[in-house]
Amino acid sequence: MLKQYFTVELEKYLGCLWGLALGDAMGMPTEFLTPEEIASRFGGKVQELREPLVSHPRAGCPAGAVTDDTGQAIALAKALITYQRLTPELVANALVQWAIEVDAFGKGFLGPSTAYALKALQKGATPAEAGRQGKTNGGAVRIAPVALVFSDNWQLLMEQTAIACLPTHGTTLAISAAAAVSAAIAAALVPGASVEDVLKAARLGAVAGRDYGYPCWTPLLERRLDLALEIISRYAERADQIRALYELIGVDMTVTESVITALALVAVTGGEPMPAIIEAVNMGGDTDTIAAIAGAICGALRGSRAFDVTLVSQVERVNSLDCKKLAIELLELRKTYMQRYSF
C-alpha cells in the first residue's frame, strides 16, 4: 500500500504534518521567552531539538516532545478519518477526550481559550456556547488536517474550518485566522504553487472566515497581513525582517500577532520549512505555535524532502507518531471527497 503513495501529493501531505510537529517540538522549550533570553539561556540560536530549562513551564519534557498544538491537530485528524466529516459535537468530543487522555488539564498545557472551553464542555455547555470567547490561535494551529482533506473544495474547506474552531475558538476573529491558515495550506498543496500563491490564498481565507462565528471587534487580518508584508519589504537582510516582525507585528498568542507573523515568515524564508521553523523558534513569545503554523504551510509547499529527517525521526519516536500513515489516511479521505463531488 505504501508504494502506491510515493507521490508528490504524499510528500506534500507528509511535509505539512512534519512541519507542524517539528515546529511544535522545536519551539516547545523556547516558548514564553524573549529572543534575548533564548540566545542567552541556550547559548545562541536554537537549531535542534532541546529540552526546556528547569525554570520553564514545560520543564521535564524530553527533547522532541510536542505540545497541545500537535496533539489537538492529530485528534482532529483521527476524528476526520473515522467520521469523514466534522460536526461541532465531534470536534468537542475529540478534543475533550484527547485532553483527558494526555492529562492536559493537570499538566497545564492548554491555551487559555481551549482550557476555558473544554472545562465548559465538561460541565455541559454546548459547542456553540463553549467557544464564544475564543480569540487566540488554538483553532488556527490545529487546522492542518482539515486543509489536507478539503483543499479542493473552497466551500467545504471554509465550512469545516469554522466547525473545527467552533467549540473552543468560535469568534469571527479566531475563525478568520484559522481560515487564513487552512487556505494557505490548501494553496501550498497545488503542484507548482508559489509563496505568492500561498499568501494570496491566506488573504482570501481571512476574509471568508469572518462569515462564520460570533462577531467580535478585530483588525482585519488580511490588512494585518498586508502590513506585515509591507514591513518586511523595507529590509534586505533576514535578521532585520525578523526583528521588525517581532517589534511591529508581535509574537503573542493573539492571532493578530502570532498567525500573521507565521504567515509573514513564509515570505521571509521563501517558503522553506527548516529556515521558517528555526526563525520562529528563536523569535520568542508563542514560539511553538508560530513555528508549527509556518512549518505546516511551508511543509505543504515544499514537501517532505525539505526536512531534516533526523530531527523529524526523533520527534516521531519521542511522541509515538506515524505521520506517514496519517498522511496516507488523510490523502485517501481527500480522494474520496474528490470522487464524491467530482472536484
UniProtKB/TrEMBL annotation:
Q: Which cofactor does it need?
A: Mg(2+)
Protein keywords: Hydrolase, Magnesium, Metal-binding
- Please tell me where Mg(2+) binds in this chain: T67, D68, D69, D286, D288, T289
Q: Which InterPro entries match?
A: ADP-ribosylglycohydrolase, Ribosyl_crysJ1, Ribosyl_crysJ1_sf
Q: What Pfam family is a match for this entry?
A: ADP_ribosyl_GH
Molecular function terms from GO: hydrolase activity; metal ion binding
Top-level taxon of the source organism = Bacteria
Q: What's the record's note on cofactor binding?
A: Binds 2 magnesium ions per subunit.
What is the similarity comment for this entry? Belongs to the ADP-ribosylglycohydrolase family.
Q: Which PANTHER family did the record assign?
A: ADP-RIBOSYLGLYCOHYDROLASE (PTHR16222), ADP-RIBOSYLHYDROLASE ARH3 (PTHR16222:SF24)
Q: Could you tell me what this protein is called?
A: ADP-ribosylglycohydrolase
Species, as recorded: Thermanaeromonas toyohensis ToBE
